[in-house]
Amino acid sequence: MKTVYFSIIVLVVACLLLGTESAMAADVTVKIQFQGVTTIAKTDDNFVCLTLDWWPANKCDHNQCPWGKAGILNLDLENRILSNSIKGDQLMFRIFDCLFTKSFMNILLISTCLIREVTASNNHLEIAAFNPLRIRIGGSLQDQVVYEVGKVKKCPYFKKIKDGMFGFSHGCLPMQRWDGLNNLFNQTGAKITFGLNALSGRKKSANANDDVLWVGDWNPKNARDFMEYTISKGYETDSYELGNELCGTGVSARVEAEQYAKDTIALRELVNELYPDPATRPKVLGPAGFYDEQWFNTYLQTTGPNVLDGVTHHIYNLGSGTYTNISFNTQPTSCVDPTLIYKVQDPFFLDQIAQTYKDISKSIEEFGPWAGAWVGEAGGAYNNGGKDVSHTFANGFWYLDQLGMASNFNHKVFCRQALIGGNYALLNTTTFIPNPDYYGALLWHRLMGSNVLGVMHDSSPYLRVYSHCSKNKLMHQIFCVCFFPSQKGITLLIINMSISTTFHVSVVDDMNFYPQGAATDENKSYREEYHLTPKEGNIQSDVVLLNGTPLQLTDSMDIPEMNPVLVDASTPIDIDSRSIIFVTLTGFEAPACA
Question: Cα(6)–Cα(246) distance, rounded to whole angstroms?
Fold first, then answer.
């Protein structure tokens, strides 16, 4: 009977959402106004981050085993698609070779070399994926991982045990596996955040009324040995993060804020000791869990300045991807959440998480202004994601909206769960073929610069708009302004969640310096558009089209080219229902982007 009632509620909610939205006109003209004089926030240059998790293949619950061989310990590190999906562009290194192996006095030799390399690599410039990709290594089991170094001689694999945290025993990272992982990271230029075991040395509280509380000081000995090994091998680490979801009320374990702060200070001292050069010193991050205002405020006050570089928190605002159905006279069964497909398209639901972004930004401003806010893990729906939603085009409504929202609230990094593994993976867990959100993440990384601009419009809440200064092209990053001028203008991300409305968008800035269509010269009379749509109009497809063409790997398993269409800048931007578009407007030379 409860199943029947639940199904009825789902159908009613769906009908209300669709019915209300369907009443809108089929074509709507919209004016978007961005604030180009000053920025409202600033992200890290490598804002997009993807995670690798520890889950073994037998991580099965809710009648699913969605991880396969996608965990840190069993992932195929030799897979060509995997490396191609991460790698940066190697052209930069060949250009440096031109500059530093030719005589600086022989301009002709240098010029000839540069022209040869750039011409030969013209296609490769677009095929290379991230440049570089930020990867966070961590997850639920990280506080049960020891590292096979120093006095740790036995290196067991995770085993299922009834009384273990998350149903598993302690596991171990062999240094041979760490070598293999770093071989992949070095080849692809990835920037690595490594999540450390924060329960090392602690024990469960004797308090019977708090069976998830752990007490005692963190023991950094195994972490020290691991860092020393990492340094001895020349492996670069961008940042270390202490623990996973141990803050606030915790998930399977928790640590009090004052104690956690004390341990974070110990980690900072360890990092400073082992990495004496500030130029190459990894950042320190924490606490890597769900935001709890009182806990976070106490933690930040206690750590004090010169300890934390990034304050990491987790976002799973879509709820569980699965639920347990309990009916009379039957055994409980696990079901996929049927409301998930509607949540990802509901702007009113998606806006609810904005308060969390605002609150954590306020906590940092008041008690830790020396650190930046990071979304350290976000999968949308927990319990591995939603089987029929999280890997499809529809999930991009949630994901890209979250990237825009987090950046508006001055978050520096956004780590998506996961690069591979679970239902929310950006790469198919079995075939490694990219899912739609991979391409959305890649376009954001390539097009959206770090300076965030305010933007508003006078139309439907189903039209979501975000604006950044455009990201500099690769040639400018390599040569600076000496050879190639910086990329002018702004880039808009426009998400149309409407099921029936096409929006026709014109753009103006707050000072009206550059009304729609204004161009400073003939070379700036066109804009670049990247339209993302689902195959055959099915938003639950795992195939995405760019400007009408399916994005598919090349015959050599490379990421395909992602070229824009050029559109007359004097015409409105047309965005179809249930579609996503990135638009680069080079004619808008906003003062904030100068």
Answer: 33
